[in-house]
C-alpha cells in the first residue's frame, strides 16, 4: 500500500517568450537544482517516478531518476493548466491571471481550460498512476498550478505562491492530507 504521495514541481526552465510554456526545457540552473532535488527525494521509497509529458517536468524527472536509479514514466494528463494558445505574459500579468483562474474556478478566464477542468484532469491522471503503484511512496513530477489545485482546493493561490522551482508537497494516502511542503530546493 502506498503511504505518501510526493508531488514535485519541476525545476527552473529556460523561459522563451516565443515558445509556449509547455515546450520550455530546463536551463543550466534548472539542471543543477534537479540534482539537489534528487538528494532531498532520496528518503522516499518510490520504485519509479511518474512525470508530466512537458519537457521541463520530464527533464526534472529524468535527472532525479538518474540520480536515484529509478525508471521514469511519462503519463498523459499530468500537464500544466492548458494555456498554450495565449500570449507570453510578464510576471505581474501572469500572477494576476493565475489568481483570477483560482478565484473563478468554473469560468474560462485564462487559457484553454477552467481551473475545475484542469484539477479534474490532473486528479484522474494521479488516480490512474497510483493504481499501478506498489511502493510505499509515489513520486510525481508535474506543475505548480495543477499541484496547487489538487493539494489545496480551498486556497490554491497560497500554495501556488509558495512553490519554488523545484519544490514538492508530501501528502498522506489515502487521505491526501498535506504532511509537508518543501517550497525551495
How would you describe what is shown here?
By secondary structure, the protein is α/β, with parallel strands linked by helices. It has one domain (4-81, 119-182): Phosphoglycerate mutase-like (Rossmann fold), CATH 3.40.50. The protein is built from six helices and six strands. A six-stranded mixed beta sheet has the order 3-2-4-1-5-6, sandwiched between helices. Strand 2, helix 2 (55-68) and strand 3 form a beta-alpha-beta unit. Helix 1 crosses helix 2, helix 4 packs across helix 5 and helix 5 (144-151) packs across helix 6 (156-162). The longest helix has 17 residues, at 115-131. It is globular, with a radius of gyration of 15 Å. The relative contact order is 0.22. The mean pLDDT is 96.
Keywords:
185 residues, alpha/beta, Rossmann fold, six-stranded mixed beta sheet, 39% helix
The number of helices is 6
Strand order of the largest sheet: 3-2-4-1-5-6
Provide the domain count: 1
CATH topology: Rossmann fold
Largest sheet: 6 strands, mixed
Helix percentage range:
25-40%
Can you name the CATH architecture? Answer: 3-Layer(aba) Sandwich
Averaging pLDDT over every residue, what do you get? 96
Report how far apart the termini are: 28 Å
Uncertain residue segments: none
For CATH, the homologous superfamily is named as Phosphoglycerate mutase-like
The counted number of beta strands is 6
Label the structural class. alpha/beta
Shape: globular
Radius of gyration: 15 Å
**Series of H and E elements:** EHEHEHHEHHEE
The CATH first-level class comes to Alpha Beta
Name the beta content range.
15-25%
Amino acid at each position: 500500500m502506498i503511504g505518501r504521495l510526493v508531488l514535485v514541481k519541476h525545476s527552473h526552465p529556460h523561459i522563451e517568450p516565443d515558445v509556449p510554456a509547455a515546450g520550455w526545457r530546463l536551463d543550466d540552473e534548472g539542471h543543477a537544482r534537479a540534482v539537489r532535488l534528487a538528494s532531498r527525494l532520496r528518503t522516499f521509497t518510490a520504485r519509479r517516478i511518474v512525470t508530466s509529458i512537458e519537457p521541463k517536468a520530464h527533464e526534472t524527472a529524468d535527472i532525479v531518476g538518474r540520480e536515484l536509479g529509478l525508471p521514469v514514466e511519462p503519463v498523459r494528463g499530468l500537464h500544466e493548466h492548458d494555456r498554450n494558445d495565449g500570449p507570453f505574459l510578464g510576471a505581474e500579468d501572469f500572477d494576476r491571471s493565475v489568481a483570477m483562474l483560482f478565484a473563478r474556478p468554473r469560468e474560462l478566464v485564462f487559457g484553454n481550460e477552467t481551473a475545475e477542468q484542469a484539477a479534474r484532469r490532473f486528479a484522474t491522471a494521479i488516480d490512474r498512476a497510483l493504481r499501478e503503484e506498489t511502493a510505499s511512496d509515489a513520486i510525481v513530477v508535474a506543475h505548480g498550478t495543477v499541484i496547487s489545485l489538487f493539494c489545496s482546493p480551498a486556497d490554491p493561490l497560497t500554495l501556488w505562491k509558495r512553490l519554488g522551482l523545484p519544490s514538492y508537497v508530501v501528502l498522506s494516502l489515502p487521505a491526501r492530507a498535506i504532511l509537508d511542503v518543501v517550497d525551495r530546493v
